[in-house]
Sequence to fold (209 residues):
Amino acid sequence: MFPPQRVRLPHVAPGQSVGLYGGSFDPIHDGHVLVAERALKVLKLDWVWWLVTPGNPLKTHDPAHSLQARMAAVRGEARHPRRKVLGIEEQLDVRFTADTVAMLTTMRPDVRFVWLMGADNLAGFHRWNQWRSIADRVPIAVIDRPGSRHASLSAPAARAMAGRRLDGEDAAQLSHLAPPVWTFIRGPLSPLSSSAIRAANGMQKPSPS
Ligand SMILES: Nc1ncnc2c1ncn2[C@@H]1O[C@H](COP(=O)(O)OP(=O)(O)OP(=O)(O)O)[C@@H](O)[C@H]1O
Ligand SMILES: O=C(O)c1ccc[n+]([C@@H]2O[C@H](COP(=O)([O-])O)[C@@H](O)[C@H]2O)c1
Fold:
């Protein structure tokens, strides 16, 4: 299905765990860094791979910054150890997370991948292309976000996967469990959003998170 030879993945030892943190990062802000660092710690991950998307398939506007500029900014700002910054969706010309996850789990079946997302994304997860196939392939960690907790936990995908929810206190086990399985991670919150930053810079109106 995919031509893996077109993409080189970072080194990761067999059996290690990798948090896949997909995002527009248009631009990156401290809320993103908080999410990655919290996931790394709470889930006891070996790595976080920042997957900078060429463009969110559900967003109607193109990113304000080029993929190269966004990746460079992520490299500059996300200085936590154990991070890698990838543009594999551009390299493979895929846009849907289901395809990205299928490719990665096929290429590295010996790695424990976990998908990371903010709570606002769980609220709309049921609208993603083949969302159930994503949930069937990798555990999912949802990180709390101001104003999104209720909408996410009562969303169609959360209800559909209610029986597969792991208590947040057991989050360190998540990457060891067979999907579908997910957990909700609470902790320090950041009110930051890229759309508010773009609006403050006169780039576009803030979008509701
Ligand atoms: N402040 C935050 N707290 C928790 N999660 C966040 C926060 N900001 C972004 N995220 C999560 O990080 C990932 C990437 O988000 P994205 O790059 O779209 O940033 P954003 O601030 O939500 O942008 P926009 O305002 O343009 O929608 C998503 O999973 C999103 O839910
Ligand atoms: O595959 C989909 O249908 C899909 C729909 C919406 C968002 N995503 C992915 O979700 C991640 C977060 O996107 P964003 O724009 O909220 O940062 C990013 O990796 C997107 O490609 C994926």
